[in-house]
Amino acid sequence: MRPDRAVTLQDIADRLGVSRSTASFAITGRGRVSEEMRRRVHEVADELGYRPNTVARNLKGSRTGMLALHIPPDSTTMSYYMEATFGMVEEAERTGLIVFMLPSGERPEGYDQLPADAVILLDPAIDDPAARTLLAGRVPVVTGERVPEGLPAARGEVTSDHVPAVRELMAHLHERGARHPAMVLPDLQSDWAFTVRDAFTDWCTEHGMQPRTVTLPHPTAPEMIHAAVAELVRDVNDPVDAILAVSDGTALSVVTSAQRLGRRVGEDLLVAALVDSEVLALAQPSVTAIDLHPREFGRRCVRAAVAVIEAAAGDDRTVRELVPISVQRRASTRGPVVPPSS
Fold it and tell me: What sign for the dihedral angle of Cα 89, 91, 93, 99?
């Protein structure tokens, strides 16, 4: 039963038998609190109907109570960024913050005067003028994925360990008989894009395979993906037997194109993606992919932003969060690869 008066942090702490500071750290994302304790505190907070006194906290700290979010240009329709955004909004609501999205145009006027306590910048790219302006501005920035060389450093950084995941995925394709893999990726100038491309190239080289990569403009029209797939699978001298697509949308276009070309995905051609989504799980055949856990990633971005905001004056240490990821093996790589019938 919820009390008649406003619920306080002390009520949550008493229910769990912990100190008030522990409950506060779990709610705000500050301090050294385990994920299990953070989860329990949030569960009790929801049960009791706790709501942070946002107005008092903001007045005390001369804050706005808002977080600005910037995602890469031409990415608003990508499921990964939408899921990550939902995770941010959920976590922000828990901590009494508001998230607003910045326009992704090429002219970031006014970004140095944002009414925000921190900025969350997803996948900063070298060629994005908004990313450069935000990182060089007065408002502290937390990035989703690392800042590529050539841009100012961020105050916080939420990342995933992509290299082991790509290597695991490549090993899986190899076990299913793939010997001539190719990667189809958009022309993105972000650290994540550089990292997964290099991980693919390194793995192929280590295993005596020619690393074949096809870079397409971003965003990419389905016709361009179809043309690239046709060139790869119809190569008379070295047709590919596995295609690794970077995004979920590209993976679906690869599957569709391969089927139009008479290939049997999951049998004579293996297909996998570096970004998972519900659509890939429901596709026919379902597509093997790396689950980046975007909602959890978004929640961690907000926690890192809160930690940066709450840091003591003069504490310039970089806040870092690491989000686990996993490979989801599905029908598109069931293998073993068999030669095409035609």
Answer: negative
Pick the range with the lowest mean pLDDT from 101-105, 147-151, 252-256.
Answer: 101-105
Structure tokens at 50: 């706790």
Question: Which residues lie below 8 Å from residue 174, measured CB to CB, with a gap of 6+?
Answer: 207
For residue 27, pLDDT over 80 is answered with: no
Q: How far apart are CA 12 and CA 100, in angstroms?
A: 29
Residue 281: left if φ>0, alpha if ψ -120 to 50, beta else—which one?
alpha
Q: How far is CA 169 from CA 51, 140, 163, 174, 273, in A?
A: 43, 36, 10, 9, 9
- The candidate with the shortest Cα–Cα distance to 330, out of 222, 248, 257, 216, is 248
172 residue type, one letter: H
pLDDT value at 337 more than 90? no
What pTM was estimated for this model as a whole? 0.82
Which two structure tokens, joined as six digits, stand for 210?
A: 């020619």
- Asked whether 88 and 120 are in contact (CB, 8 A), the reply is yes
Query: What's the mean pLDDT in 260-267?
Result: 95
Helix (H) / strand (E) containing 306: helix 294-310
Contacts 24+ apart (CB under 8 A), 193-200: 193/246, 194/148, 195/162, 195/163, 196/162, 196/166, 196/246, 196/274, 199/162, 199/163, 199/166, 199/167, 200/166, 200/170, 200/244
| Both tokens assigned to 317 | 């240490």
Alpha helices, DSSP H only, in 118-161?
129-135
Tallying the residues shown for the chain, one arrives at: 342
Residue 261 predicted with pLDDT over 70: yes
Q: Give the tokens for residue 20.
A: 């008030």
